[in-house]
Design brief:
The structure is a single chain. By secondary structure, this protein is α+β, with helices and mostly antiparallel strands. Helices cover 40% and strands 20% of the residues. It has seven helices and 14 strands. A seven-stranded antiparallel sheet has the order 2-6-7-1-5-4-3. Strands 10-9-8-11-12 form a five-stranded mixed sheet, with helices on both faces. A hairpin with a 4-residue loop joins β3 (120-122) and β4. α1 packs parallel to α3, α4 (210-228) runs antiparallel to α5 and α5 (234-268) packs across α6 (287-310). The two termini are 29 Å apart. Bound molecules: zinc ion.
C-alpha cells in the first residue's frame, strides 16, 4: 500500500535554479493545454487529449527539464477534468496557474539498466537524489521508511521553503501491528481539555499544546495585520511572507501533534468510540473554539484512516446521544445539567461525575453495547 512521506529539503543554488525551471515548464505546459481544452469546450467540442510532446518542437526549452514531470502535468490535468465532469459541485473547472502560487512538480522512480533507481534517499548522510539533478539535495529525514519509492513531488511553498513528498509502496502495516493492550476506549472531545479518554483501566486527559494555541493566535494576528496593508505594497509583501511562514509552522506542528496522538490511541485500543462531529457547523465566533473544532475534525480523520490501516474499529456515535447529561453509572439523564458544571452529582444514584470523564465513559459503554449487537 502507498504512503507519503514529507521532508524538508535544502537545495543549493544550482538545484534551486533547476527547480524553478521545472516549475516554470510545468506551469507553461499546464496553461497551454488548459487553453486548448477550454477553447474546445467553448466551441462545444469534446476535451481533446494532449501530450506535452506536441509543444516540444515549438518550445525547445521544454526538453531541458525532467520529461516525467511534464507527463505528470498531463495526467494531473486529465484527472482534474474528470473530477469536475463527474462531480461539478465539488470540483471546479481547472484554472490557470500563476507564478506566485505554490509551485510543485512530480517525477516518477524508474529503474534504468544500470540498476540504480532514479529517485533515491540516503538516510545516513541526509541526501535526496532526483532525476536530472547531479548531486544529492540536502534533506532532513526526521523519519525513515522501508519500501519501494514510486514518485516524488517537489514543492516550493509561498514562504519560499522546499519540501519533498515521497510516495512509497510500504508493506501493509497490519502485518506487524501490535496487539492492543486495551479492548475499547471512549473519547470525549471537550473545550476545557482537547479530549478525555476512558479505557479499560482508567481515564486520561489530553491537553491541546499551549505552544500551538499561541501560534494559532499569532497567525490570526498576522492575518489581521496583513488585511490592513495595501495590497501589492512592500509592507503588504512582507506581511504576506510572515503569514505564509507562520501558517506553515502551525500546519506542521498541529499535524504532528494530531498524528502522534491518533497513532498512540490506535496502537492501544481495538475499538475507539468517538462522537461524530458536525463539521459544517464549525464555530466562527470564538477563536479558541474554532481552533479546537478544526483540530477535532482533522483528528477524527486521522483516527479513521489509521484505524483502517491497522485493522481497528471506530464507532462514531450520533451527536444526539446525550453523552454529557447521562449518568454513566445508572443511566439517568440529567436534563438540567448546565455547561458550566464541571462536576455534578447524579440526582438518581448520587454518583459524582467529572463532566468530560463521564461523557467518555458513556461513549465507551455505548461502544460495548454497539459491538455486542454487531
Ligand atoms: Zn446515576
Amino acid at each position: 500500500m502507498l504512503k507519503a512521506y514529507k521532508y524538508r529539503i535544502y537545495p543549493d543554488k544550482a538545484q534551486k535554479e533547476f527547480f524553478e525551471k521545472t516549475f516554470g515548464c510545468c506551469r507553461f505546459v499546464w496553461n497551454k493545454m488548459l487553453e486548448e481544452k477550454l477553447e474546445a469546450l467553448r466551441q462545444g467540442k469534446k476535451v481533446p487529449r494532449i501530450t506535452p510532446a506536441r509543444y516540444k518542437k515549438e518550445y525547445p526549452f521544454l526538453k531541458e527539464v525532467d520529461s516525467l514531470a511534464l507527463a505528470n502535468v498531463q495526467l494531473q490535468q486529465e484527472k482534474a477534468f474528470r473530477d469536475c465532469f463527474k462531480n461539478p459541485r465539488h470540483f471546479r473547472i481547472p484554472t490557470f496557474k500563476r507564478k506566485k502560487d505554490k509551485q510543485s512538480y512530480t517525477t516518477n522512480n524508474q529503474q534504468p539498466k544500470n540498476g540504480r533507481e532514479t529517485i533515491r534517499v540516503d538516510f545516513e548522510k541526509g541526501f535526496l537524489y532526483l532525476p536530472k539533478i547531479k548531486d544529492g539535495i540536502k534533506a532532513v529525514f526526521h523519519r525513515k521508511f522501508e519500501g519501494k519509492i514510486k514518485s516524488a513531488t517537489v514543492v516550493k511553498t509561498r514562504a519560499g521553503r522546499y519540501y519533498v513528498s515521497i510516495l512509497v509502496d510500504v508493506q501493509d502495516p497490519r502485518n506487524d501491528v501490535k496487539e492492543p493492550k486495551n479492548f475499547i476506549c471512549g473519547i470525549d472531545l471537550g473545550l476545557k481539555s482537547f479530549g478525555t479518554i476512558v479505557n479499560d483501566t482508567g481515564s486520561l486527559k489530553i491537553e491541546y499544546p499551549k505552544y500551538l494555541i499561541k501560534a494559532e493566535k499569532r497567525l490570526k494576528r498576522l492575518q489581521r495585520q496583513l488585511s490592513r496593508k495595501k495590497e501589492g505594497s512592500k509592507n503588504w509583501e512582507k506581511a504576506r511572507a510572515r503569514v505564509a511562514k507562520e501558517h506553515e509552522y502551525v500546519k506542521n506542528a498541529r499535524g504532528d501533534f494530531l498524528h502522534k496522538l491518533s497513532k498512540t490511541i490506535i496502537d492501544e485500543s481495538q475499538i475507539v468510540v468517538v462522537e461524530s462531529l458536525n463539521v459544517k457547523g464549525l464555530s466562527r465566533g470564538n477563536l479558541a473554539k474554532y481552533i479546537l473544532d478544526s483540530s477535532w475534525s482533522k483528528f477524527l480523520g486521522y483516527l479513521s484512516y489509521k484505524a483502517a490501516w491497522y485493522g481497528r474499529t471506530i464507532v462514531a456515535v450520533d451527536r444526539t446521544f446525550p453523552s454529557s447529561k447521562m449518568c454513566s453509572k445508572c443511566g439517568y439523564i440529567h436534563r438540567e445539567l448546565r455547561l458550566s458544571e464541571r462536576i455534578w452529582k447524579c440526582p438518581a444514584c448520587g454518583a459524582v461525575h467529572e463532566r468530560d470523564e463521564n461523557a467518555a465513559k458513556n461513549l465507551k459503554n455505548y461502544g460495548v453495547v454497539y459491538i455486542s449487537n454487531q
